[in-house]
Amino acid sequence: MKIKTIYLILSAVLLGSCSRKISYETNYILKPLVQEMVSTPTQPQEGVVAYAYAVDTLQWGIASYDDALAGIITSKQTGEKRQTPDSYATPYTPDQPAPDPAPAARFLRGNAQGDSPSEGGDPITPNPDYRGWLTMPLGGSSHMIVVADTAHKLYGYTMQEAVLNLPNLFVAVVFKPWHEGRAYSDGKWSFYNDFFEPPVKLVTYISPKIQLEEGGAESDPAAGRVKAYAYLADTTEWRIASYDDAVAGRLTHKQDDQLHRDLPNFQAYAEDSGLYAMTVTGTPLMVVTVDRTNRLYAYTQQTPDLHGTPPTWSVLFRPWMHSSREKVGDWVYVNEFYQPAPKPQP
To answer: 114, 191, 198, 301: which is deepest, by most CB within 10 A?
Structure first.
């Protein structure tokens, strides 16, 4: 009797499974993002064009930015062109189906190939910013997904496999205009920049000196005790919050303490001459120099002519100055030792 009961239960489970509707139809919901510089956070990107073809990216590609914008793909074998996408993206709005709140939200950046956002994807948030989001229906076959960023004239594509019984598939894609070269890969996406031109490079120099007493001689810092770098940043918008941040190379936004930049655009390296050489490719520059012996740091904003003569910026650390912050010439010098203690909270 017990065996018969188990058999009936298993039969009921199997019948329920077989009766469940199987579907490969899904709403492909795209969240376009842009990272303007290598050290800046991503931001929503509006004005992106997206569409899909039921073809394989091993056989089809995009010939140019103009073709990407027009929805035209080209056969890699024959040169044949197709001009009518199988699906075209339209704006996604919050009144459409909400994102799945489950931990495995299936929101991927590199490509929608599974359930985990481990490929660098941004997880679904309870109140997401829907600016620039797009949606398009996908059928039961694999698709070539094409995206074009009209602001930066970048385009890219990836292969999206068919997914089973998933009504909404959320995917994030990040455009990175800072990438050098006409092509680059990011996850399972291939990106192209037909308008890339190699940046103009300028070698700049920083000359750090230390004066231990007022009127005393200026000397070179001890080897390895100076750190120097630069950000493509405006000092009216960004600041250094502490000496430790200066050593770490971290900036903090003046209007938002939660917004940071942690990777300098340019790093300076010591030469035998005592100068620190740094190759830059843009302006304005927020140049930072740290005296790690005396726990001092200084910063300046510079806008060198990238086609001009290599400049040398002299910075003189004066640990004898009993001042928490002082501007001397183009440099602002900071000594945390003399900063007033924070007032106790009532």
So the answer is: 191
The Cβ-side half-sphere exposure at 102, using a 13 Å CA radius, reads 9
Q: Which of 143, 94, 278, 291 is nearest to 208 (CA)?
A: 291
3-state class (DSSP) for residue 210: strand
Q: Tell me the per-residue pLDDT of 270-319, one tens digit each, with 9 for 90 and over.
A: 999 999 999 999 999 999 999 999 999 999 999 999 999 999 999 999 99
Residue 138 tokens read as 């996908």
Residue-level pLDDT at 98: 45
What per-residue confidence (pLDDT) applies to 24? 78
Q: What is the DSSP string of 72-111?
A: -EEETTT--EE-S-SEE-EE--TTSPPPP-SSS--EESS-
Q: Are strands 26-34 and 168-175 parallel, antiparallel or unpaired?
A: parallel
pLDDT value of residue 125: 46
Q: DSSP letters along 272-327, please?
A: TTS-EEEEE-SSSEEEEEEETTTTEEEEEEE---TTSPPPEEEEEE-TT---SEEE
Distance of CA 293 to the CA centre of its chain: 34
H helices present in 142-274, as ranges: 243-248
Distance CA 143, CA 174 (A): 19
| Interatomic CA distance for residues 140 and 90, integer angstroms | 20
State the Cα–Cα distance between residues 230 and 29, nearest whole angstrom. Answer: 38
Ranges of the chain with pLDDT below 50: 1-19, 98-126
Report the alpha-carbon distance of residue 92 to residue 5 in Å, rounded. 50
